[in-house]
Description:
Order of helices and strands: EEHHHHH
Oligomer: single chain
Amino acid sequence: MDSGDVIPCLNEDWAFGGCKLFEWLAGLMTSFLVSSAFDKPAHYMPLLVLIWIGTTLSLAMTRKRFPDEERGVRNMCMVACGFEPPGIPAPARLQPRWSGGPIRSLSPTCHYSALELDQVVNRPRDIEQGG
């Protein structure tokens, strides 16, 4: 099914509360790290639970901001480190974040090619150049 249709939840991992297992574990490890800053961590247990849940939900919200989820977060981190993700076109003004879709050619049977929209999209560029 490479016609562009997306089947929702096809590759969905295990999730609880909209957060994947890795996000829950990352939140738990964050609360462990924060607990080392306190003398008696048992007294601060409600705070540590809030840190655990807050970290987990913030990781899930960051992941869900991107249409390609983990790949979008990975690309965002790569850009923050100062280098471009390989094989991915630069972001456009219309959507100023990196996509995870690889660069590839369109099928001649897709609707975009059948309607010849590539010629329509390229037309304003020809007008601006005086042609």
